[in-house]
Design a protein that fits this description.
Blueprint: H1 8-18, E1 24-28, H2 32-46, H3 52-55, E2 56-59, H4 66-74, E3 83-88, H5 97-107, E4 114-120, H6 132-139, E5 142-145, H7 151-163, H8 171-181, H9 185-198, H10 206-212, H11 217-229, H12 233-245, H13 250-272, H14 277-284, H15 288-298, H16 303-322, H17 327-343
């Protein structure tokens, strides 16, 4: 079995280029879009569609057993050089001890003609080093983590995907779209498709994005607080009502508002100390675009307002959790109280 690579994703990309997949892969991580992308590429590399019924074997939580996996691994390829076995969302470490020991032996001796991939999307990948035989067998394969991509990489990726559809998008607008979708490549892929179909021009403009993109909760909260900073209190209240119409939970909305105002307060402090958005990125692990936007928004609020906003959010949180008042009414009341504080400076 191959030794775990220093950079498993780079090793996987090289294997795809050179047609040299290893016998065991384990895929997990936040960025499900990338996980599925490379799983699909690996399957296409190994499996000829004409013989897929013979050479592709998938096991899930409903169909998995040690015997079923052994049968799949030992099934000889038909009209092809290799077979592909995909085990999806099965926590091997939670199996009975006898099964774990059996799998430790089985996974240590995967046939040369077989590529086995274990994937984890909703089931957490939590290896238990105490179960040495199984742990060592899995660790000897290539464990590839698909992490959230950086803001810089996502912006470049958005630009490439629009270009593939004959469209151009500026760096700032690509960053805006990344912000609206929360940086999820899965959401971005769908929104790019919609925006490209909607736009009648080669150059994507902001109105194209706003017309068809459904922003994530954090993005709408940012827009709402930005409107407060601009003194457009009616529009801020409309944004809140839009979130409620989207059936977002009031407590989740309040949590996002609280998080955003904490960041605004930190950004305001950094501004007063002559620091830039880079320090805010470091403090909160933010991308460049949202950090710059937060710093710009913080410049519209006084330190006193940021402190009062945090206090009002905490009061609203307490009321939601301890009173019988309507949570939606409490949220609207919060926005009105924030608007009043904004008018008072």
């Amino acid at each position: 079995m191959a030794k775990q690579a220093d950079d498993p994703l780079r090793s996987l990309k090289k294997a795809l280029r050179d047609n040299t997949p290893v016998r065991l892969y384990l895929f997990y991580g936040e960025e499900v879009f990338l996980l599925r992308h490379y799983l699909d590429r690996l399957k296409k590399l190994v499996v000829d569609p004409a013989a897929e019924d013979f050479n592709f074997h998938k096991l899930t939580g409903e169909t998995f057993s040690c015997q079923a996996l052994q049968d799949a691994l030992e099934a000889l390829p038909m009209m092809a050089e290799r077979t592909f076995v995909w085990v999806d969302e099965v926590d091997l470490f939670k199996l009975p001890e006898s099964d774990r020991n059996f799998l430790g032996d089985l996974l240590s001796d995967i046939p040369d003609y077989c590529t086995l991939v274990l994937t984890y999307e909703t089931v957490a990948w939590k290896p238990d080093k105490r179960q040495k035989k199984l742990y060592n067998a899995l660790a000897a394969g290539e464990i590839v983590v698909f992490s959230r991509q950086s803001q810089h990489d996502l912006i470049a990726w958005v630009g490439r995907h629009f270009a593939a559809r004959g469209k151009r998008i500026s760096t700032d607008l690509a960053g805006y779209l990344v912000d609206l979708t929360g940086g999820s490549m899965t959401l971005l892929a769908g929104e790019i498709e919609k925006i490209a179909a909607y736009s009648g021009a080669e150059e994507i403009v902001k109105s194209d994005i706003d017309a068809v993109t459904e922003p994530v909760l954090e993005a709408v909260v940012f827009q709402m607080t930005d409107l407060l900073g601009q003194g457009d209190y009616g529009a801020a209240l409309t944004k809140l009502r839009t979130l409620l119409q989207m059936q977002q939970e009031p407590l989740a909305i309040l949590g996002a508002v609280g998080t955003h105002f904490r960041r605004l307060g930190a950004a305001r402090t950094l501004l007063d100390r002559g620091m830039g958005s880079g320090e805010l990125q470091r403090l909160y692990g933010m991308g460049d675009y949202p950090a710059r936007k937060t710093m710009a928004a913080a410049g519209k609020f006084s330190p006193a307002f940021c402190a009062k906003a945090a206090e009002l959010v905490m009061e609203t949180d307490y009321q939601m959790k301890t009173s019988f008042d309507d949570p939606e009414r409490l949220l609207e009341l919060l926005i009105l109280r924030l608007a009043r504080e904004g008018k008072n400076g």
